[in-house]
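Example record

The entry below shows one chain as it appears in the dataset: sequence first, then structure tokens.
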Amino acid sequence: MSVLRFDNVSKQYPGGHVALSEVSFEVQPGEMLFVTGHSGAGKSTLLKLIHLAERPSRGAVLFAERNLLKVRGRRVPLHRREVGVVFQDHRLLTDRSVFENVALPLILRGLRRGEIGKRVRSVLDKLGLGARERALPTQLSAGEQQRVGIARALVGEPRLLLADEPTGNLDPTLSAEIMALFAALPERGISVLVASHDLGLVKRMKRRVLVLDHGQLADDIAPEDLADA
């Protein structure tokens, strides 16, 4: 059973702009893949449909065979617990510590304090941030801030991690570090979908690549075919 399936999905915004047109693909459990394309190709819209920040105009987005078009009201936050999101700009609360930023999704769920502490410290240790839990985001390097954003996305133990241009503000060394973290997640059963316009980075990762062109799925490239892409 796929963790995610797009079935002839189209998205048209008010005013007539077509962001996606009849896009179909599947993501398997424990698979890491990239979606790439020019600015405005539809990458961010695709991620928003998965996270229910937007709804499709036509077609179906299925998450673990559940049609997201039918997920409404109080069921939306329940769905989002299964989908972690990493943003390019981190979106960290600058007046809260690293620990508090990562703990926020669990606090909103109403978990007990002991369970929150256990989960937060576990994910911080795995990302090399255990010694920084009391620091404020402004006291961290760019790479550390991005890792805090990843920790916050992973602390809820999602089935799928979405990353929207996660290395856009990082130098090549830090970009490679972040990608290595993502590449290790499928071993834990977490699927990873990364939106990136950095073709060099995408090719180096040697993972499946979805290519969007003006809202259409122009190509679905297998890792072994990347050298010819």
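Notes for this example: The longest strand covers residues 18-27. The mean pLDDT is 92.
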